[in-house]
Amino acid sequence: MPQLTRKEIGKLVIGICAVPILSVWALVSFLPIAGLLGPGKPLIFAVADVLFLLTGFGAFLAPVVAAVAFAGPGARGNIKAALQGRLAALTAYASLWLALYWAVSVAARTAV
Fold first, then answer.
1. Which helix (H) or strand (E) element contains residue 70?
2. Distance CA 94, CA 99 (A)
């Protein structure tokens, strides 16, 4: 059995934690659309839904897809290298986003 270094173990743990968090974030980040289309609610919560929509998964995915689509074959390796090592930061951001969205949605339900 091959021995793993501490760095490899750290990457493995981050990957194991990142998969469910980023999957849930990808699904939940489109829920503000339903909040905007739903029945009338205070303006502050509509603004919060717009802000969550602008900072959700789609806002992060769109530039990456555009960069890959418009980049030449030689530049795609540079894009992948730029994204390398950012999984922990993205997972932390997604966790914070999910916690804030949960708090705002609970506040919206109790205010209406």
1. helix 57-70
2. 9
Q: How many CA atoms lie within 13 A of 1 on its CB side?
A: 2
* Percentage of residues of the chain with pLDDT beyond 90: 46
What confidence tens digit (pLDDT) does each residue in 54-72 have?
Answer: 999 999 888 888 887 887 7
Region of 85 (left: φ > 0; alpha: ψ -120 to 50; beta: rest) is: left
CB-CB contact of 74 with 51 (8 Å): no
pTM of the model: 0.84
Average of per-residue pLDDT values in the chain:
87
- The length of the chain is 112
From the list 56, 24, 53, 58, the residue with the least C-alpha distance to 36 is: 53
Instruction: Say if residues 28 and 101 touch (Cβ distance below 8 Å).
Output: yes
Amino acid at the residue 85: G
